[in-house]
Each structure stands twice: as C-alpha cells, then as structure tokens.
C-alpha cells in the first residue's frame, strides 16, 4: 500500500506477517523503480529509523520526506496506545 508519493520517491508499506507489530516501509526511486532505503522499527531506540541502501545519495528534500513519514508512523503508534 502506497502511503506517500513525492516527485522522486514512493513510500510503500510492505505486507508483513501477522506476528509482526511494526511496519516496514520501502522507499523506491520513481525514475529507476529501485528500493533505495527502508524505514523500520529500531527496538533499541524504541522508534522508527531510516536505513538507506548502500551507495545512495540523499538531498535535503528527500530527507525531509523521509522524516515526515517517520513522524507520521510515530504519531500513529502513539494514537494506538
């Protein structure tokens, strides 16, 4: 399911096992159709974090989009509790 689409990126939720409690979001480059990063839960920090794919370059606009998705995921998590 696509949760956000920008000029350069698509943020799409992975289908996950029923036993998994947190979401995994693939970040795909629109031009090439390749997954260039992932947002997923990092248990040690108790928050969603961004995991860029090796050898990718991110500008401030794209990083702002990533941050916006992370903030939304964290807010949604707070509402559930």
Structure description:
The protein is 26% helix and 36% strand. The protein has a five-stranded antiparallel β-sheet, with helices on one face. The chain has one helix at 60-80; strands at residues 2-5, 9-13, 24-29, 35-42, 47-52. A hairpin with a 5-residue loop joins β3 (24-29) and β4. The chain has one domain. By secondary structure, the chain is α+β, with helices and mostly antiparallel strands.
User: How does the helix and strand content classify structurally?
Assistant: alpha+beta
Mean pLDDT: 93
- Give the termini distance in whole angstroms: 23 Å
Task: Characterize the biggest β-sheet.
Answer: 5 strands, antiparallel
Strand proportion, as a percent range, falls in: 35-45%
What count of helical segments does DSSP give?
1
Order of the strands making up the biggest sheet: 1-2-3-4-5
Helix content range: 25-40%
Rg result: 13 Å
* Number of beta-strand segments: 5
- So what's the overall shape? globular
Number of domains: 1
> Residue ranges: pLDDT <50 for 5 or more in a row?
none
Features:
alpha+beta; 81 residues; 5-stranded antiparallel sheet
Give the SSE layout.
Blueprint: E1 2-5, E2 9-13, E3 24-29, E4 35-42, E5 47-52, H1 60-80
Antiparallel strand pairs: 1-2, 2-3, 3-4, 4-5
Summarize the structure.
A 5-stranded antiparallel beta sheet has the order 1-2-3-4-5, covered by helices on one side.
């Amino acid at each position: 399911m696509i949760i956000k689409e920008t000029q350069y990126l698509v943020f799409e939720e992975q289908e996950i096992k029923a036993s998994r409690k947190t979401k995994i979001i693939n970040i795909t480059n629109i031009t090439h159709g390749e997954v260039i990063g992932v947002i997923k839960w990092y248990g040690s920090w108790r928050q969603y974090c961004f995991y860029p794919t090796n050898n990718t370059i991110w500008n401030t606009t794209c990083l702002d989009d990533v941050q916006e998705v992370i903030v939304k995921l964290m807010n949604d998590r707070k509402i559930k509790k």
